[in-house]
Specification:
This protein is an all-alpha fold. It is built from 3 helices and no strands.
Length: 68
């Protein structure tokens, strides 16, 4: 996911996406231990996605609510 796409999500959607990405990373780590990973670069990609999601989620929680 790009940062632009992540910023458009609501905090609830961000939390869901974060949980899903962490689960995917866990599955990749388990498959790596058994030697079944076909695309090892995805470990790096998922770690970076998790960092992006956490950063933007934290920023949205800290931002004052805007009147819309």
């Amino acid at each position: 996911m790009t940062t632009k796409e992540i910023r458009e999500l609501s905090p609830a959607e961000l939390a869901t996406k974060l949980r899903e990405t962490r689960e995917q990373l866990l599955q990749l780590r388990l498959r790596k231990q058994t030697g079944q990973v076909e695309k090892p670069h995805l470990l790096h990609v998922h770690r970076k996605d998790i960092a992006r999601l956490e950063t933007i989620l934290h920023a949205k929680k800290q931002a004052p609510p805007t009147a819309a």
